Amino acid sequence: MAAPLAITPSVPTWHTKILKRLADRDRREREAFADLFTAHNAFRDTLSNLESKLSSLRIEHAQAVKTVAAVKDFGSADSAQRFAELEQQVTSLKEERTELYKTQGQNAQKLLELMEALQKGDGKIASLEEENQTLTTSLASVNTRLRDLQELIREKDHVIQILRDELATHQLELVQREEQLKEKEEKLNKLESENKQLIERWILLKQEQAARMNEANEFVANALKSKATSPPVSRQTSAANVYDDQSPQPVVRTSLPQAAVKKIHSHDSEINCIQISPDGSLLATGSNDKKVILYDAKAGVVKATLSGSLQGIMSLAFNNGSELVMGTSNDNSVKIWNVGTGRLKHTLTGHIGKVYAAKFTDSNCVISGSHDRTIKIWDLAKGFCTSTIFTLSSCNDLTLLNGDGTVIASGHLDNNIRIWDTRSGSLVRELTGIHHGQITSVTMSPTQNILMTTSRDNTLKLIDLSTYQTVGVLSHDQFRPGMNWLKSSYSPDGKHIVSGSADGSVFIWNVMTGRVDKILKEHKSAVCGVVWSPQGGSTVYSAEKDKTVVFWGASA
Amino acid sequence: MQRIDTAVTHGIWDGQLPVRISIDPTDAKTLASGAILHSHYTFMHRCSYLPLVTESVREVFVKSGVAFTGHDADIWYEYRGVPLKWHYPIGLLHDLLTSQYRGSSPLPWHIIIHFTNFPTDKLIRINAANIIDTPHDSFMSMIKEADYIRNGSIKKLMSLSKQDQTNLWQGLSSHDYDKFWNVNARLVTNDNTIPKYIPLRVYLLDQPVIQEPVAPVDDNLDCEYTLRDILGRMLPEIFPPSLDAPTTEGADNTRKSDASEAVAILHGIVIPIETPILWLSQNCSYPDNFLHIVICR
Hints:
Chain B: Conjugated with ATG12. Chain B: It is found in: Preautophagosomal structure membrane. Chain B: Its main location: membrane. The complex is a heterodimer of chains A (556) and B (297). Chain A has two domains: 37-71 and 80-154, no CATH class; 259-553, 7 Propeller (Methylamine Dehydrogenase, Chain H), CATH 2.130.10.10. Helices cover 40% and strands 29% of the residues of chain A. In chain A, the strands form seven sheets. Chain A has a four-stranded antiparallel β-sheet with strand order 1-28-27-26, with no helix packed on it. In chain A, strands 2-3-4-5 form a four-stranded antiparallel β-sheet, with no helix packed on it. By secondary structure, chain A is of the alpha+beta class. Chain B folds into three domains: 6-114, Ubiquitin-like (UB roll) (Roll), CATH 3.10.20; 133-188, Serum Albumin, Chain A, Domain 1; 200-296, Ubiquitin-like (UB roll). In chain B, 36% of the residues lie in helices and 15% in strands. Chain B has helices spanning 6-13, 25-31, 50-63, 90-97, 133-151, 155-158, 162-173, 177-188, 227-234, 251-257, 277-284, and strands at residues 16-23, 40-45, 76-79, 82-83, 109-114, 200-203, 217-218, 223-224, 263-266, 269-270, 291-296. A five-stranded mixed β-sheet of chain B has the order 2-1-5-3-4. Chain B has a four-stranded mixed β-sheet with strand order 6-11-9-10. Chains A and B meet through α1 of A and α1, β1, β2, β8 and β10 of B.
């Protein structure tokens, strides 16, 4: 790292030499010239100053010479003045020209600007027109959309109305059920106390029976003593009775009615409906006078007048045992009377529209259809509504497709027929396009496979329930249903169908041929319903709007 | 361990060359429309570079009537038909181009200034965008090369702060000895480490520059090389190694006795041939850290 040759204490000669030579060099190169250069530069500066001064003086001189020459040229003061004036004129003219040029330039500029502005304006107008067009088209489309939306709103309003109705129905039902629950509880208490009494009575009876048995035993013992006196005949007789009971039902024969047997006026107001009991013994009519009148179906005399409805009766139905008759009312309720006592047994309230149809089922239920667009199923054992089906259209009539009413068919204001499963409340089938008018009645054929419908399109149609195909159309030139609740009927053997027209005629069609077999004329006003006696023969009952009930038979 | 010999460094730093600058006659005709233009006499620092004086020189000539509107980068100088390389120190230019006078050239040094026709085939073009940047970059690259020769890397230079690096150039261009040497001392003493090689260039008139790796000490002999050792090795035909005649006489005697011999000129003086090369490098290098030695035959 360290150089071994350190500088010796005595300064080496080369070092001295270098220093000396540097000094020599400076003397020769610098010191010799320093003063000279300074002086030279000073002189040079002075010289340049003088030169510049000289040049300015020269210019001054030249100007002076020029002035002198000019003065000489123009001589006198007058000419000088004239010259000055002319010069002034020239100057002013020049200025004027300059200004004119300027104005011209400005004008040209303005012209250009205006042209540009014009072009821009044209462009703007074009674009505005285009915009206007697009706006017009969009406005039109918006308008159409608006119209569509308004229509949609109207539809939605309608749906909302329906849903509100349904909601009201449900609420009403709820209130009723609560009330019914209370009633039931009270009844339960009552029944429990009754039960106790009965048990006590039963015990008493048992004791009595036991005493009698003892008596009987005694009697038998006595009888055995006097044995072998009479032969056993009674057993044979009882066997014959059993055979008679189990024999098949006699085939119901029907024949065409020929003439009116009897005419009855008993209502105070228009008759809406007529019904015959399943055993054929009772005839019932319902009227706008809020009453149901029961007649002896053979004798044709009034047996009872059932009241309790607050509005007109729209349809009637008997239960299978013919001990109950049910009327549906415009007061939104369904009333059930006991035929024997003539007392009101049930009032089924819950509908919020006129009730147009109701049927008993084998399972002790009632199924009712109303103009509030619902079908309700009522349990008579409990006395309240067990389920509600929303049908979306007012129900004009309904019929059971099987005995216990688990499948039903309903005819509606919207020309359609609907098949329902009442257990689930679901729509099984909607039959559309069959009729072109309101359905006034739906009836099951005695053979249980054909649905007969009556419509305000002046036709009756037969619908095969296995295929839902129309298998027959019944009509006549003069056949025109007179009201929305006209009910048609099958003859008990299913070979004929009977209905009535607005002009009072009663039409009887042959189901096989589809032709009208008979037209009966006796009524003066629109017929509201015709029923054929379940006992067959030619017994047919019809009712007209104008309070008359006609009993038809083979001869007068 | 070896300190800077400030007497010598000051002497070298303050070296000034009297220069007579004349305008090229062709330029005078075109730019000064034939007006009589006097020469400009001025001193130039031997360690400085021509671009650093161009501005003041141009001002003088413009003031005296030269209609020069171009860029200072277009200005160039010439001595006896040889364009002066602006990236050489002025002292080196003078010593090399007047080497036939063996250190006693006629003074002032008469050079010609040109304002047009820059000889792009002979001189490097100065970047016109920044007249000072190009000389600065050239100077810094020389210093980097010197550092690389000494240490095989330029870590020492690059580890200097930005301010120190700026001070090197500013000290040189404003001729501020303290500003320059505060930084330069660190470089030339190599932080008291003996460098691998000495940054040295040997110039002969009209011959290519000689640059070889020159070690300052001989590890085997364990002794420091002198200038003679180095030159004897580089130019054996000019400095025969066998010839061993250390002179102990005065400078004037030496010059006379050496009249027929070749001499090494640095900073305008004949360097005693027995001077150790390491000391010479540390004290007598140009600001670019190189020993630019001109050989006069």
